[in-house]
Amino acid sequence: MKFKLLAVLLFYFSFTTIAQKPAKMGTSKYLDEKRGFKNIILNSDISSIEKDIVETKDTTMGIMPGVKFFEIINSEMKKIGDKAEIKKIIVGSFNGKIAIISMTLDKPNGSIMNETFKEAYGSGYKPNQFMEKWIWSSKNVMLVLDIDGLRVDTILMADRPLWAEIEKYGKEAAKKSVKDI
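The structure corresponding to this sequence follows.
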């Protein structure tokens, strides 16, 4: 009887220890675990970064019904190690939750970020061999790095479940607008 109880407890603690093991770098699970950039965590309350933001009318990401945009004003959040620096960070909030993180970088920071993302989240997916665009995708996060040949490089990180809600909200708003015509 004591042996069975000990075996059950040992199995339970072994299983919970394995289940709580942090995700391995270089995997999409690590992207899900990080789920953001520095302390800007997707699907968390926008109030969690309120001291670092100011509301903006920046339309870099276009106009999205129901989404409020904020610019990061904390310069420390724009530094990545000693090699790269982000020019601008815009955060999109939907229903009070952080849904989108958009970053613009000067050259050659996009290439540096590509190497950083590959190390952190794996090789990613390059949808077009003629464009320097990379996509990393996990259950909860979509990350896109666009290394534009002429202008600035961009990073877009989106919470997949919230993105689906934004799309649904946008479609419903469009239907309502059609009825108002």
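The beta strands are 36-37, 40-41, 53-55, 67-72, 79-80, 84-94, 97-105, 133-137, 141-146, 153-159.
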